[in-house]
Each structure stands twice: as structure tokens, then as C-alpha cells.
Design brief:
Layout: H1 17-23, H2 27-41, H3 63-68, H4 70-78, H5 93-101, H6 103-110
Helix pairs in contact: 1-2, 5-6
Length: 111
């Protein structure tokens, strides 16, 4: 795992279905992910919107990762690579849900 493939929130981009669909040009995975994310977020997400090369690398991102993710926007605004660089991470309500539900994300941010 490359360090720049850890998203601002600590999730591993290399395990994300949008990333996997992009690097493998997997249309079936794009369709499955669009359907799941649409249901999860109560919005319409189209398969052609499921393209991402990683949160913290140059290249294409999903519309969510690019401009809607409050965690990424906060880190960028504060000039941090990830939330792990922020002294407020442990008490932050923005990233709190991710790290409280995903021990790997917390470990990635602390690592």
C-alpha cells in the first residue's frame, strides 16, 4: 500500500470499489457501486460517475470525493495531508464516524 493511497479520512483507496472499477475498467463493478451508493446516499449516482484514482493523488475522482466529502474539504482547507495530521482528530465529529466504525482507518491515520 502506498502512503498516498490513504484517504484523508484514513480509508484505504486501494480497497474502494470506485478505485478498483477505475483501475480495472470494470463496468459491472461501476454499475454495482453506483446502485449501492445511490441507495446509501439517497441520491442518483450513475455508473459513469464511478471513476476515481484516489483521494490524495492527481487524477480523476468521484464527484463525492472531489467536492462533496466534508472530511477531504476540511483537510485541504487546513493544509493537512490526512486527518491524522490534525490535532483535533480524536474529538472531530466530521471524521469521527469513519474512525469509530473502522479500526483500520484509525490505524492508517495514526501510522
Amino acid at each position: 500500500m502506498k502512503d498516498n493511497m490513504i484517504a484523508c479520512c484514513g480509508l484505504n483507496c486501494e480497497k474502494c470499489d470506485a478505485y478498483l472499477a477505475t483501475i480495472h475498467d470494470d463496468q459491472a463493478l461501476r454499475e454495482k457501486t453506483a446502485k449501492e451508493w445511490s441507495e446509501l446516499n439517497h441520491v442518483t449516482i450513475l455508473p459513469e460517475q464511478i471513476n476515481c484514482e484516489g483521494c490524495r493523488v492527481d487524477g480523476v475522482k468521484t464527484v463525492y470525493c472531489e467536492s462533496l466529502c466534508g472530511i477531504r474539504q476540511c483537510a485541504l482547507k487546513k493544509g493537512f495531508e490526512t486527518c491524522g495530521d490534525c490535532p483535533e482528530m480524536e474529538t472531530c465529529r466530521i471524521v469521527g464516524m469513519v474512525i469509530s466504525n473502522n479500526p483500520e482507518a484509525r490505524k492508517n491515520l495514526k501510522g
